[in-house]
Amino acid sequence: NAGVTQTPKFQVLKTGQSMTLQCAxxxxxxxxxxxxxxxxMGLRLIYYSASEGTTDKGEVPNGYxxxxxxxxxxxxxxxxxxxxxxxxxxxxxSEEDRSSxxxxxxxxxxxxxxx
Amino acid sequence: AQSVTQLGSHVSVSEGALVLLRCNYSSSVPxxxxxxxxxxxQGLQLLLKYTSAAxxxxxxxxxxxxxxxxxxxxxxxxxxxxxxxxxxxxxxxSETYNNNxxxxxxxxxxxxxP
Lengths: 115, 114
Description:
heterodimer; A: mainly beta; seven-stranded mixed beta sheet; four-stranded antiparallel beta sheet; B: about 110 residues; mainly beta; five-stranded antiparallel beta sheet
């Protein structure tokens, strides 16, 4: 049981390049999330997906696109990377449960540097 | 929108001493509150959560937090710090059960001195 996995672990891009961050979970969760973590700012939600085939914007969606490929996978794409997108990116998943308000499970992160 | 303020970006305690990490929240409705811990080069892990059942919440690794509505606070405590507690701690607030509006604080880095 791997939980939430992310690839790659590290990436360096030049301004204007594109790339896709991959995320997969094996816990059969319906909801998945992409966050970015910047020093002194905590985590901020970029996009989320409440179920397969649906995606919604979070707090900081500009410059990103997402795809919920199937129930397991949720990818984040940077079409034209900018230095302001240098950050650590975390994927998370959770199961909606009104009775217990289930937690979000986080992947290990992708450290992205845009030069 | 809801928000969280963590007082103190760095806290240092001696091994065996009390740990107190402060969190104040702002929310227009009764909130859901969380504490997460992040060890170096890892993702976040849930320590505990408040979902209106009991105001004193016990979590993993001996941590607990008390919800105080009158003070809009949700401070994290542990009676006796251990070296393994050294990490970054994040307080978070949500106004909905489905987590889609989670807001995190800036984090508090805890150092434990031998």
